[in-house]
Amino acid sequence: MVAASDESFAAKENLLNPWAPAFRPETFGAKGQEYDGWETARRRPGADGELGHDWAIVRLGLPGVIRVVVVDTAWFLGNFPPLASVEACAVDGHPSPAEVAAADWVEIVPMSPLKGDTAHEFTVTGVERRFTHVRLNIHPDGGVARLRVHGDVVPDPRLLTGLTVDLAALENGARVVACSNGFYSAPDNMLFPGLARNQAEGWETARRREPGNDWAVVRLAAPGVVRLAEIDTTNLRFNAPGAVTLRGLDARRASLDDPSAWRELLGRTRVQPDGRHRFRLPGGREVTHVRVDIHPDGGLARLRLLGDLTPDGERLLTARWNDLTRNRSEMA
Hints:
7% of the residues lie in helices and 41% in strands. It is mainly β. It has two domains: 3-153, Galactose-binding domain-like (Jelly Rolls, Sandwich), CATH 2.60.120; 157-315, Jelly Rolls. It is globular and about 75 Å long. Residues 2-153, 173-308 form the Allantoicase domain.
């Protein structure tokens, strides 16, 4: 969170809590009922008769193209805002709150009606550009439990080109595009930054009762050569897989659905529970996707695929960056 116009009843930081909004009845503090969300004071017209509105500015965890915004008023019934809109901007570097507030903002969700205790999902269309911050405007005041902003990560190529990077990192633009099972937690979790603090922060499948094994396919940040793989089973003491396999494919030359197109990067290799395993990979095969097979089931806390962007990968990243940032002034 960067700033908010008001947070008299409940802090703006609650908008970003990762868990589902909770409610405990009759939990009154010095400011009234305690809400798991952001809540502003009741607005009154000023001397000019204007009522105004409240707002909160959020720095996106990962800059990118915004596809969907969710404004969730869970548990707010007599105090939700009747209307809301969302704006976005792009500010390079490490700006101050004042610099962000003074940026050129683009409306991505027009003024829309809200209901109480409801998750409102808004699809963002017609704004194909990279953003770093969003501003939630509520009219005139009230409470919002959660704000979610979904989209496609657009990394800065200046921070990746010419370096050894994690080609499977979510913050570099990688994503899981297919998965056999995500019963307990989503496979994208294993691409998150940092270390997993518990089992829920990794990928975990249901117990497999049929033949075969579970798997996930990762679309890399850009075409590259994977040099080293890190398979992390931290926190998975009784539900780690017995072994893993890695295979790679260049989707520019073959289909993901063609089993014969996948080439081995790491043969079936035993792994231990609750530990980090590092494997140097032989060869220099250029790939766009990597499939991780876990035998027979279980979970991974993190998957790291360290390597180099190919010249073509660097060109693709740079071209996308230029395409999504070049028209900033015209679209603001």
